[in-house]
């Protein structure tokens, strides 16, 4: 029988029994599944925006960029995913028993150990990239654990949970990319852009809450669709995504970047055109808006990063 593929049993409480015939070590493929590579793209994209926005030469900072990419994606984001699955293992044993931990493919307490080891590795890489990157890494890790772990479990309330995820997926990686290249506190204009797009990302996070409203109500997870109703939550998400981009457009115009401002305005108007479709039926249309409106949103992020690169090139 293949390594780690022995049969597992489930107790009456819904928790997988990792004793007896179960393998002592996790399957490598299961560890990768636990770290969820598909979730790494968002923070790595935001980090790329931070790198671009500095205006510093990439060729001279290759190793800093490589380290920052590993930090934003596989390490910090991977830590958050492992921690989340560990603290959700009892619920997943009932609702999603095929996931790595409840299925036994990541047996015993390995899910927790992986999250802890990844935390230490993240701090080590952050420290190697400079004190500002280390500070951002530490802040991101605190939020990652607070999101999933008791007693805080920010994910149980949509206001706190979505704020934490939006910040960790957009603002902190953007800051990290800029700090890794500059080896100092990023320019205030860069951090302002990062903060604005991080605020807008709160709305993107709300879109992920429409898929399991009834289950969240039963489990006591107070997402915004549960608290406000699906239509009101969708309207709020639209406003929260749009308003920071309006400020970005004004900011770019003030910085003398009318072409970039026009592009950001264009992608914003395209998002606004799609929003009525979302509001009419958020539970059905949220995945479609995620694929279209969110793509437009992140394209505006990169446009803004290039605008800031141009600004800093003439007025560092």
Helix content: over 70%
Task: Give me the Rg, rounded.
Answer: 21 Å
The mean pLDDT is 90
CATH class identity of the largest domain: Mainly Alpha
Query: Got a strand count?
Result: 2
Order of helices and strands: EEHHHHHHHHHHHHH
Strand order of the largest sheet: 1-2
- Major sheet description: 2 strands, antiparallel
Broad shape: flat
The overall number of domains is 2
- How would you classify the helix and strand content by structural class? mainly alpha
Question: Could you say what the CATH architecture of the largest domain is?
Answer: Orthogonal Bundle
Please name the fourth-level CATH homologous superfamily of the largest domain. UbiA prenyltransferase
Q: Low-confidence spans: pLDDT under 50, at least 5 residues?
A: 1-21
CATH topology of the largest domain: Tetracycline Repressor, domain 2
N-C termini distance:
62 Å
Number of helices: 13
